[in-house]
Structures are given as C-alpha cells and as structure tokens.
Specification:
Distance between the termini: 15 Å
Structural class: mainly beta
Number of strands: 8
CATH superfamily: Ferrous iron transport protein A (FeoA)
Largest sheet: 6 strands, antiparallel
Strand content: over 45%
CATH topology: SH3 type barrels
Number of domains: 1
Order of helices and strands: EEEEHEEEHE
Strand order of the largest sheet: 3-8-4-5-6-7
Helix content: 10-25%
C-alpha cells in the first residue's frame, strides 16, 4: 500500500488531500496504445495546470484511453470520457491511473 498526500490553498482555505493506493497504478504517459484505464488521481506540481487538467475532464474515476503517440512520443492523443485531448507527455506523467479489466472492474 502506498500513502500520498498533498495540499493546496483555494480561496484562502487549506485543502489537504490524502490518497491511499492499494494495488498497482500507472501513469498516463506509460499507458499502452489502445488500452483503457480509470483516473485514480492527478498530482501536477503546477497549480494552474492541475486546474486546466481538471477542466479538460481529467478527474478521478473518469475513463481514459490512449489513442496515439506522436512519432517522437510527444504529444499524446487521449480520449478522456467522450473528449479527445492532445496532452504533453510531461503533463501526462502526473496523471495516475488504475487498470480496468474487460468486465469494467478494478484489477
């Protein structure tokens, strides 16, 4: 089991987020082409990018699928929910996923 925590200050209030991870997780940047997974959490060190990723739909529980990688590996074309997004590989390294088996359950 892994323990992860971080905090943010929103409108003058300190928000503390604690995540307990059981089992294996992977990064969006390492997701094999064509595979689907669910977002476990997003932990981008840049607050404005964290917000932008959330606005684009990168929220916990949302399904993502890697559609294509550019020839040099950057950017990635990802389907998040029903939206197609091009995301920089460096930013995708901050999106943590858990695999979903064919029945739709966590592995």
């Amino acid at each position: 089991m892994m323990f992860f925590d971080f905090y943010d200050i929103i409108e003058g209030k300190v928000i503390i987020i604690i995540v307990f991870i059981s089992g294996e997780t992977m990064l969006l940047s390492k997701l094999p082409k064509g595979q689907e997974a669910k977002i476990h959490y997003v932990s981008h060190p840049c607050n404005s990018m964290q917000i932008q990723l959330s606005v684009l739909g990168f929220d916990p529980g949302e399904t993502v699928k890697l559609l294509m990688k550019a020839p040099l590996g950057n950017p990635l074309q990802v389907k998040v929910g029903e939206t197609l997004v091009a995301i920089n590989t460096d930013d995708a390294q901050h999106i943590h996923l858990y695999e979903v088996n064919r029945n739709g359950h966590n592995k």
